[in-house]
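Revision sheet: structure tokens.
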Amino acid sequence: MSIRANPARYMFMDTNTLHKPPIHFNQMTWFDRFIVFSGVGFGSGLAPKAPGTFGSAFALLFTPLWVYLGLSASIIAVIFMSLIGIYICGHTAKVINVHDDGRIVWDEFAGQSITLLPLLYLQQVNWVWVIAGFILFRIFDVWKPFPINWADQKVSGGFGIMLDDIIAGLWAALCIFIIHFYILT
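Predicted:
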């Protein structure tokens, strides 16, 4: 079939709506495929619009796991997720040859999970608080007040990719505590 026969079919074939180079999974080693697939949030970061929001929303699926594990084990798991995320994000950026590509959303997984930790402490894990935590994290992740903007601009590599979202998660978690203790009680 030629392009002239059906131009609409080919119109978006090579268009990348994120203006980033395409990710060629079929040209990677199995190890690189696994790491990059993890880095792009098991596909959630490949959404054509707002991949960080989709990655953060996907991270909400971890909420039942955090409830099952309890606060202490969840803190350990989130620390592990953050530490391994330094490698995953750095290696993914290296393989796809773009630093802090918007499609890399493992950092959103960690930041969103940090945001939800106070809910475990407060024993307030319900969908109202989870959605509030999601919104707060997205606000800080997009707005990037100090020191999030500093980390985003000055720290490089996998650590830099992770750090701004970890700080955004901490700011959002702090807001959950403030709302709970000073506004609602």
